[in-house]
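$ run holo --ligand "zinc ion" --emit tokens
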Amino acid sequence: MADDDGVSLTDRVAFLDYLDNNVVDVLSVPGLRCDICTITYAVPPAAAPPSDIVDSAFHHDLQQEGGHEVPVHLPCTHIFGRDCIITWTTESPTCPMCRVVLYSTTRPGDTFGDIARRRNRESLRELEQQRQRAALHTALRAHQAEFAARQEELMREFETRQIRERQQFATQFVHLEEATRQDVARATDHMERAIRQTYSMSGELKVTRQEFERVRIQNRDRFEELERRLTRERLTGNIMRSLSAMVFALAILTTALMLHRG
Ligand SMILES: [Zn+2]
Ligand SMILES: [Zn+2]
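-- output --
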């Protein structure tokens, strides 16, 4: 917070350090916009305050990727965009809102040499920060390019694999279709053979029935013939027996007559 004379920080380096350690959660800023440039802050993926300058610069660059600068709060508690307040304070080290002096540009007893050395140190620090940001930006761009290339490579790989799999599937399908066709052909063949066998069996059955009928009729004829013959023989036997009885009777009669005469 500000001292009685309005100066809270010893110099610009301390002020820049202060800003790095006082990044504000975007969602807690009324209106979500910077009061100097009136542009909306970017909502960070993780609103944790950065732990050092490099993190802060990187964080800042990420913000620039998404939308606008990060909000920081000043010792007087007013909140502005980090880039805007840094630019603003190169003209005057005061808060744009309440005009409180944020840091000292001179100290009691400073010589011109002290002031020159301090300004030199400040500009060196800012140059170093700019250099770090540029390096991080380059690294980020390289990383993004690498990522895009890798993504494209993966997409190509995926498409190639998909095409290959589709071709394999098509080939397998053709094989399967061919196999199925052969199976169906074999089954049809079996069925036709079975039908032919059934036909030939029914033909054979017909022939067998005819044969049976023929044999039956033959047997019946033979039986009738035998019966007829038996009847005939029986009849002949009877006649013969009658004849022999008559002959016998005649013989007895003849003998009796001869005995009677003799
Ligand atoms: Zn701004
Ligand atoms: Zn203020």
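-- notes --
The chain has four helices and two strands.
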